[in-house]
Design a protein that fits this description.
- The chain is of the alpha+beta class.
- The strands form five sheets. Strands 3-2-1-9-10-19 form a six-stranded mixed sheet, with helices on both faces. A five-stranded mixed sheet has the order 13-12-11-17-18, with helices on both faces.
- Helix 5 crosses helix 6.
- The protein is flat and about 65 Å long.
């Protein structure tokens, strides 16, 4: 093994990095601010996100990943190089090994693009391994995949929801749904614009989602600041959970129905074990109130919530980086 080994989950919403022997060393928003034709990064993560919807024309704020695939490769490489320099104290890290989590239900070409972030950047890796994200999630949950006869994993992310059945060391079937937490933000923005003639930004919509959205009824309200479209001036409105939650009910219903469909099409020998273990729910958007209860109602199967849902995959990558013999059964070495 290389002296330095890293596990990286390039999530749509956040990037998480595990360093062998030290644990999770970074968790940042997957956002980069660049300037000029040279695409020079000036900020990443939360700092770059704070610039979003406030930046002047000379600055470009980019979200390089979209729906589980790399949408802007140059921006993604620029973000990684900048992040790498920050981690290493302005020194270029070379000759390391990297374990990268990738969605299982995408093409090999799109999976390979993840390795290009590392190989085409300034890090000059010794080796790059790809790990299907459901596998990383299972080990991040502390489950021995080689012995487990049936696992149903639901990973609700920013742009996608990945539902996977695994058994005895491998993936039986997986399905990547093209919607996640960001779709709720867009729905909330569109509703407020249409209903109130009121404009809010994505950051505000995200806060509304966190405060008012739930898969089960609740009674909350919040004051929202934005721009009155009729007057063209800043203003405020009051929103309630009773208004917002019904807007996104279809999102939750779709996930619950897809989980049930996956369970119904799983071989009986595996589904029996899943019913005994329960369904595992992880991913950053899995924390939305009531989602686990809705899935339980739809499937009649207990749902286990991950303790740290945003860190499950990167924790699994860390485990595999620390156990090379186990990792060898699951990784794909990129050349």
């Amino acid at each position: 093994m290389a002296q330095k080994t890293y596990g990286i989950d390039f999530g749509t919403g956040t990037i998480k990095i595990y360093k062998k022997g030290k644990g999770i060393i970074l968790s940042e928003r997957n956002v980069v601010s660049t300037i000029g034709k040279e695409n020079k990064p000036i900020a990443i993560g939360e700092t770059a996100y704070e610039m979003y919807e406030k930046e002047p024309p000379s600055i470009h704020v980019s979200f390089p990943l979209s729906h589980g695939v790399i949408a802007h490769m140059k921006d993604m490489i620029a973000l990684w190089d900048y992040m790498n320099m920050t981690l290493s104290g302005k020194k270029k890290i070379k000759g390391c090994e990297y374990y990268l989590a990738v969605p299982a239900d995408i093409t090999d070409v799109k999976k390979k693009a993840y390795s290009q972030i590392i190989s085409e950047g300034e890090t000059k890796p010794k080796r790059v391994f790809l790990v299907d994200k459901p596998v990383a999630n299972v080990y991040g949950l502390g489950i021995n995949l080689e012995k487990a006869r049936g696992i149903l994993l639901v990973d609700v992310g920013a742009d996608t929801t990945e539902i996977t059945v695994l058994s005895l060391g491998g993936i039986v079937v997986t399905r990547l749904l093209p919607y996640g937490g960001n779709d709720l933000d867009n729905t909330i923005r569109n509703y407020i614009r249409k209903e109130y003639n009121f404009l809010i930004g994505n950051r505000t919509a995200e806060q509304v989602k966190k405060e008012l959205v739930a898969a089960v009824p609740m009674d909350k309200m919040m004051q929202v600041v934005g721009r009155d479209m009729l007057r063209g001036l800043p203003g405020e409105i009051v929103l309630t959970s009773a208004q917002i939650s019904p807007l996104v009910a279809q999102f939750f219903d779709d996930i619950a129905v897809q989980v049930r469909s996956m369970l119904e099409h799983t071989p009986p020998e595996i589904s029996t074990d899943i019913r005994e273990r329960g369904i595992y729910l992880t991913g950053g958007s899995s924390r939305i109130q009531g989602l686990s209860r809705l899935i339980e109602q739809e499937t009649a199967v207990r749902v286990n919530l991950a303790a740290k849902p945003q860190e499950t995959a990167v924790s699994g990558l860390g485990y595999l980086s620390e156990h090379s013999k186990i990792a060898s059964k699951y990784v794909t070495l990129m050349k």
